[in-house]
Specification:
Blueprint: E1 2-5, E2 11-14, H1 18-28, H2 45-51, H3 53-70, H4 75-80, H5 84-104, H6 108-150
Antiparallel strand pairs: 1-2
Helix pairs in contact: 1-3, 2-3, 3-5, 5-6
Length: about 150
Amino acid sequence: MKTFVDKSKGIWPIDINVSAVRRIKKKTGHDVLRLIESVDGRAPLLQILLMDPMEAAGVLWSVCEPTAKERQLDEDAFGELLDGATFAAGKDALIDDLVTFFTESGRKELANAVGKIREEFKTGLEQVALDVEAAGNSAVAGLEAKTAEAV
């Protein structure tokens, strides 16, 4: 079981178990057991978790709902507790516990694949950030040159 902390310093357990897998499927339509497969023409769930914040929020809510209900929070109140950093921490805890679930259930190859895909995604994002920064620096240099010519 993993945990993350919301912006009010509340601690949220992430416990992927059979009940959580069922809740995720019932509430979001995502089959966690097919985490890296395309299903019904949709992107693999891991890709969705990494790239689609609203879908990821739905999956995170599905896992945290029992705890939220104990705390008398609905989905909107739960969402209010998540800013960018805490939401990212929640997604990381979710993916980490999915890896643990798969490893413990004898699907180590799936857990390994998740780790590799996650690392590739992170590397890709870092490269995009570098490309954007380089393009921005180039554009600024061009504007500075044009400004200097005009003066």
